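Subject: design request, 470 residues
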């Protein structure tokens, strides 16, 4: 007879720690992740042939965190059934979770399911954002960390939040020229009003200061209270136009500046990858600062669905340090539920992780205002601007649907096809919701089977669940 099974979706810091803790406590653990190697976005690993190399002074703290995380995971990795290159494409209930890789699919039963799917970057569309050479800041990091590839020689950054500063400094260290980093708000404004948060995040702030020093030594201008107006070029990105904004997101006439760039990187915050939790029936709330549509959870990560837990940033943006601690707490609770139907059974074993998580949450709460978008920022989305890249849907088409009464996300999706493309709405749903107004933000789009693209051959080649675990 098999042991109780805990299934973890996502192998970033939260998922790795959740899997390790559940395995340590005696669960049979299945860890599913789309990437070929664990680590998630923040600790993305290159192929072994590209591993190694010198680590800069600014990058050393992250490298040390990565080492500690992987060391802790490695203690239990041998008993974890890790499925790399595999997606969860549907959750019909904890007894019917559909996973698929390139060649086959399988229904898996779980006594406890931990969703640690993180989040993805948000971009406010501007004219020209669909040109080749326009990317997200996280995509630049992914290419650099995962393939040692620097995507561009002259890279301009625009948007909100500290990720832009870190990514820009990393590109400088990789040999790129950065003509500008344009931020909607000062990153540190919320922190200066909260001494407790400053103290709680002193290690992260020290690390951030190192990255800022890289930018300063390179002479990179960091402009706050500036908004991106457009990207232009002959068939690809060649220049970024920004302007100072009035505090509400509207450009101040006469303050426009143009910067030559072969690559433009945007980041306007993040959206939680909560579609699996929504499909499983979890209660959802909307929090614009912490990632949009978030599963409602308690301190153990338990949702409104018995046996369903969420860990890390999918439950609200808090960063990689908090995610690792949260993963340990949630994995412990999931093991308690799977083995004893008692999420609090082993709570005392992760008291240190709880305390560390609380400290990181304090810091992140004070940092959250730096991602808050000015209220009129979407006025820059012109009628001809494409909002849904996958389906080519413009703002004019969306405005017509709203005028016809389709002001909820599901109605807009059905009427315009925005959000129906291969990305599943990850690039456009937050913009769609903002354009629709209060009802749009209050209504999460329906999560349906086929959340991740799956080859028909994989669906046809169904493997029996009886072959998994024992």
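Subject: RE: design request

Done. Sequence follows.
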């Amino acid at each position: 007879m098999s042991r109780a099974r805990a299934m973890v979706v996502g192998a970033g810091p939260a998922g790795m720690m959740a899997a390790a803790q559940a395995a340590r406590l005696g669960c049979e653990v299945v860890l599913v992740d789309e990437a070929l190697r664990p680590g998630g976005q923040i600790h993305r690993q290159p192929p072994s042939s590209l591993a190694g190399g010198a680590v800069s002074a600014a990058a050393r703290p992250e490298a040390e965190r990565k080492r500690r995380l992987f060391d802790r995971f490695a203690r239990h990795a041998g008993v974890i059934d890790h499925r790399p290159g595999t997606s969860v494409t549907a959750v019909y209930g904890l007894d019917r979770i559909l996973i698929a890789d390139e060649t086959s699919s399988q229904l898996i039963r779980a006594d406890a399911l931990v969703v640690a799917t993180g989040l993805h970057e948000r971009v406010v569309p501007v004219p020209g954002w669909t040109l080749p050479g326009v990317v997200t800041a996280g995509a630049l990091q992914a290419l650099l960390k995962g393939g040692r590839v620097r995507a561009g020689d002259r890279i301009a950054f625009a948007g909100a939040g500290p990720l832009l500063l870190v990514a820009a400094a990393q590109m400088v260290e990789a040999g790129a020229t950065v003509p500008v980093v344009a931020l909607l708000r000062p990153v540190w404004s919320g922190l200066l009003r909260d001494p407790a948060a400053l103290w709680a995040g002193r290690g992260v702030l020290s690390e951030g200061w190192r990255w800022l020093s890289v930018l300063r030594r390179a002479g990179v201008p960091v402009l706050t209270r500036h908004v991106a107006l457009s990207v232009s070029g002959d068939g690809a990105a060649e220049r970024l136009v920004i302007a100072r904004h009035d505090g509400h997101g509207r450009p101040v006439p006469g303050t426009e500046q143009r910067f030559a760039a072969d690559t433009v990187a945007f980041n306007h915050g993040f959206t939680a990858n909560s579609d699996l939790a929504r499909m499983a029936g979890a209660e959802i709330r909307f929090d614009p600062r912490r990632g949009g549509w978030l599963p409602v959870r308690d301190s153990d990560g338990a949702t409104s669905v018995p046996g369903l837990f969420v860990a890390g940033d999918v439950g609200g943006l808090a960063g990689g340090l908090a995610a690792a601690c949260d993963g340990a707490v949630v994995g412990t609770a999931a093991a308690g539920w799977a083995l004893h139907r008692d999420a609090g059974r082993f709570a005392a074993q992760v008291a240190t992780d709880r305390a560390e998580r609380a400290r990181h949450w304090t810091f992140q709460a004070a940092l959250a205002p730096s991602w808050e978008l000015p209220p009129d920022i979407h006025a820059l989305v012109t009628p001809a601007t494409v909002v849904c890249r996958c389906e080519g849907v413009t703002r004019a088409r969306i405005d017509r649907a709203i005028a016809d009464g389709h002001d909820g996300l599901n109605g807009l999706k059905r009427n315009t096809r925005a959000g129906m493309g291969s990305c599943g709405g990850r690039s456009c749903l937050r913009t769609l919701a903002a354009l629709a107004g209060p009802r749009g933000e209050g209504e999460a789009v329906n999560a349906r089977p086929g959340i991740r693209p799956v080859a028909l051959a994989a669906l046809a080649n169904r493997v029996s669940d009886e072959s998994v675990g024992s």
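The chain has three domains: 2-120+270-367, 124-267, 381-442.
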